[in-house]
Each structure stands twice: as structure tokens, then as C-alpha cells.
Known about the structure:
The chain is mainly alpha-helical. It contains seven helices and two strands, in the order αααβααβαα.
Amino acid sequence: MKHALPPILLAFLALPALAASHSTSTFISEQDLNxxxxxxxxxxxxxxxxxxxxIDFNADGQLSEAEYLGEFEGRLMLRVGKIADPEKRxxxxxxxxxxxxxxxxxxxxxxxxxxxxEEFQATGRHMFKLHDxxxxxxxxxxxxxxxxxxxxxxxxxxVSP
Length: 161
């Protein structure tokens, strides 16, 4: 299946692919497409759709394991390349790639060997809800403050401010 997107949106395809970050501040900076300091559900869905299209190298409407892992490995290489110790760099690369393979299996909820746009969007919806600490359908500075206060209070959450 081919994806048809308006030409203006194709410009966003040049942006680097970004997973929905665990840090609320990073999440906002990565997912705020219009630069207004907040992320709304429609804006986030659009960003996820554009990311999906960019990763779907053969444009078949599915992310194969090779597409998913290949895209992740490219981003990972930029990050681990900064680790000075070659052994630690190798270990981190191997650990992260093992995690990515497991993550692919989790995201492929129908277990057909690929990730559909709906499966991809479902994980995004989950991450959006985690960052929307006050449940107002907007991720903004208030959500960062709430996450920061929860972290200071010792509440356990993998989402950080």
C-alpha cells in the first residue's frame, strides 16, 4: 500500500526519526512539530505517521524487522560512536540492538512479522498518555513540572521531566 501525503508534509520526512522519548522535556522538543512548546494528540499522530512512512523504506505500509532494526541501528551508531572505550561501545551497541529486537516483537502485536501503522500508532498513544501527567490532552511545561515533582517525591515512573 502506498502512502499519499500532502507535499508540505513531505518536508517533515527530512527530520530525523525519533522514538517517543521517556523524558517529557525531550518528548516535547522532539514531537512539537509547530514549535509552540506543547504537543497535541493530532500533532503527535501526524509526527508518528511521518516517522512510519520514513522508516518504511519499501513503502509497503508495513515495517519489516529489517526496516525497524536498520533505522534504529543508524540512530544508535550516532549515539554510541561518542563512547570512547571500544569495548563499552560494542557492549552498548549489542545490548541496545538486542532490546530493539525484543521491542519489535512486542510492537508486532498480531505476530505477522511486521509492524502496521496502527501497531506503530498504538505504542505512540501509550507514550503520549504517560507524558500527559495531568490528562488534559496536551503535553506541555505543566506536565514537565508534574513529572519533576513526582520524581523529587520518589514516585516511581520511567518517565522523567
